[in-house]
Amino acid sequence: MTGILVLAGTPIGDISDAPPRLAAELAGADVVAAEDTRRLRRLTQALGVQPAGRVVSYFEGNEAARTPELVEALAGGARVLLVTDAGMPSVSDPGYRLVAAAVEKDIKVTAVPGPSAVLTALALSGLSVDRFCFEGFLPRKAGERLSRLREVADERRTLVYFEAPHRLDDTLAAMAEVFGTERRAAVCRELTKTYEEVKRGPLGDLAAWAAEGVRGEITVVVEGAAEKGAGELDAAELVRRVQVREEAGERRKEAIAAVAAEAGIPKRDVFDAVVAAKNAARSAP
Questions:
Q1: 3-class DSSP assignment, residue 151
Q2: Interval 174-183 mean pLDDT
Q3: Is the Cα dihedral 66, 67, 71, 72 positive or negative?
Q4: Which residues contact 114 (CB under 8 A, 6 or more apart)?
Q5: Which of 34, 96, 102, 253 could join 40 in a cystine, given CB atoms 3.0 to 4.6 angstroms apart?
Q6: Tell me, what's the pLDDT at 232?
Q7: For 249, phi and psi rounded to 5 degrees?
């Protein structure tokens, strides 16, 4: 019989948030694959449990190489427990490769639900929670970051991002540029920890606040775009939508046709707006 892969959530801050089943899984697994074995040691000490099985590291640097080894153990009947430093495996953390490989081999995969920075921040943000999308970490390079943000500029669902504290000011400034300074957002810092803080407000204000420096683990929640009627789309907005599609790989002709269809206006109107913007850019000093 094949084994079973268990994905276990771990605390994102307060150790008492550990799910009750976590200690039992740590004690009973044949193999514990941990993103950081030193953090795992601190976690097991806090929970008062000693793993009986083999403990191996499983992080970004060795994920591809170690996956076949863990799949082999699963195929041989082992119970493999996967934990990351905080939150659920696979969510901006190692795990996807192992899950995909296990599924391909028809090996059972289950989970021990646990804390999630995504859902915690979303709930605390004060923004709409009925529909949302998780965007993970944005690219580090400014141009790529702006391009990624433009792709979701018209997204009406609430957006959730992870970000490093030293890049937060640049990210919020880029969001204000693409989404508008008045778009509401929430910066959730050090969730469930002693110095937990949720800073809410327009993106422009949050960008100015973050410029002074922010520390800790960061999750950013951004309000979705307001729905626009066809008559509200000015020439600049039409051009921006075409640019977003072109940056995503569409040819200009197809991008113009798609934007025209979305806005319910003739393709010629969109084409004229694009040409006018191009001519204005050329004549600018």
A1: helix
A2: 93
A3: negative
A4: 8, 9, 10, 11, 17, 18, 19, 22, 87, 88
A5: 34
A6: 60
A7: 115, -5
Spatial contact of 28 and 52, defined as CB atoms under 8 Å apart:
yes
Give the length of the chain: 285
Cβ-contact 123, 115 below 8 angstroms: no
142-151 vs 168-179: helix crossing angle, rounded to 10:
40
User: For residues 279 and 79, what is the distance between their CA atoms, to the nearest angstrom?
Assistant: 64
pLDDT per residue as tens digits for the range 47-105: 999 999 999 999 999 999 999 999 999 999 999 999 999 999 999 899 999 999 999 99
Residue for token pair 């004690």: 27
Dist CA 213 CA 168 (whole Å): 8
Mind listing the pLDDT tens digit for each residue in 124-162? 999 999 999 999 999 999 999 999 999 999 899 999 999
Nearest residue to 114 via CA among 84, 87, 96, 93: 87
